[in-house]
Amino acid sequence: MGDDLPDKLTRLAALADRHGLDTLVLREPATISWLTGARSHVPQTLDTSCLDIVVDCRDRGADPDGGRHAAARLTVVANAIEAPRLRDTELADRAVEWAVVPWWEDRSAALPTGPGVGSDRPAPGMVDVRADVAALRRQLTTAQAETLGGVCADAARAATVAAGRCRPGMTEYAAAALLAAELLDRALDPVALFVAADRRGAAHRHPLPTAASITDRVMLVCCARRDGLIASVTRIRCFTPPTGEDRDAYRRLLDVEAAFLDASRVGTPIGDVVAAGVAAYPAYGFDATEWHRHHQGGFSGWQPREYPAHPGSADPLTAGSVVAWNPSGAGWKVEDTCLVTPAGPRPLVHDPDWPSVTVAGRHRPDLLID
């Protein structure tokens, strides 16, 4: 759970205090990742975690450092398949209690309920605190921000190496295999893999790999996770020189991305950031409805995107928020993972071996051209 566990428990204690709660039941995969960094994505359904965590906030007192987390008791609720793995790996040597149930039984029966219990995925009899927990986990701790920087750097390097190994005639599946291998070699779990040969990315904005062969260019896209944190990366390699028109379109798309980044400031509603990016499409020569063809990104960190942000989204950016924007148009796409700081957004997906271009004072990924 890392050295920042006291910080996270203090935040949870304050949340419980605001709602007059004694106990928090954490069930959302993103929340489990935020609190523990554990790999919990081995359930029977993709939107659930293989463990729940009960945070007992009763009778918590001040510790020697002045926090209020000292007496908070954590209980991990897991089935008999997952509990041994979690004990031996992700949660080894952690001061937690265990409630282990047979795999054929519903874990929810082992969870507390009642008016003093809140949850980020509430069952009947629990207080709904999902919005508060989501806002809490959007602010990375210092340790989490450092971890995310390493995840992003390694994901960027994996994309560079994989792109360098791609060849004309190779199928999209083969290119995806190269990217997956490079990610796994760096202890990164591939959460999403997209590959577009030639101009297929213009027709399909989420191009799951197919047996189509690469001829002129290839776009590699991944969301990669380690310690619960996710980096989103897009890189494009051209095997034949792009036309001047294509180069110009890609450069203008970087200008659109700059509008998203310039607007990604502490305190700004995320919908206002999207509105700034949307206005940039026609300002830089794209169709004004281009953004209708693909979601533009949003909050990231513990999920590839918490939800696709749109101009009406009201959640504010805070210091420590993670955003990933992915504008696309004219067959091109750009994407990065950024930490929001008081000084502005800090792009984290960078590999010095990938060509870059300076846009709005930032180093941005260029096309890799043979």
Automatic annotation (TrEMBL):
Gene3D superfamilies: Creatinase/methionine aminopeptidase superfamily, Creatinase/prolidase N-terminal domain. InterPro entries: Creatin/AminoP/Spt16_N, Creatinase/aminopeptidase-like, Pept_M24, Peptidase_M24B. CDD domains: APP_MetAP. Residues 153-341 form the Peptidase M24 domain. This is Antitoxin VapB. It comes from Micromonospora citrea.
